[in-house]
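hey m, so remember when u said the tokens were messed up on ur end? i reran from scratch. heres the input so u can diff it against urs
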Amino acid sequence: TRAAVMLRDYPNSLSLRYQLALNLHASLILKPEWTAEEKSPYQARVTDWLCQVADGDDAELANAARHMLALDFLDRGELDHAEAMIDALPKAPYDRYILQGELLYRRGDVETAATHISAGIFETLTKAVSQLYKMIDLEVKMANNIAALPCRCHKHPRGGLPPLACLRHHRASAGGSAT
């Protein structure tokens, strides 16, 4: 196959293995008429390639492969393998709460799964609120800095526009966003 030739030409390319695994995985999704038996050899190849990437020395690719493997193992009911992939993922950027919640749910522990996902929601909301407060603080500081600048616009007198429109004008003229 073309993939075999590419891998023979570039045997150490984890990126190539990962891309081939993604392409083959997508192709299998686009073949809903195929039986599980027909898909099995191709799925085995996808899993093999992803495992090679997950064991590789490129941390970003390895984590992406682990995330994909965790999802595949969950779909196939291979919960211990899924758990191993989830445990190997860093806390960010992957949402371990969702994957671990799904794992708990598939093992039949619905209550713990709900509690686990609730904890993830609380953590996410806490971070979001903290980031929102910081963003509001920064916006106020930027507005104060811009408002303190002398008006460089010759099209309107300083007091001729409503404050928000003036702020937008100065932000845009300073190279920032006009929104």
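this time it looks ok to me. The radius of gyration is 26 Å. if urs says something different then somethings off w ur setup not the seq
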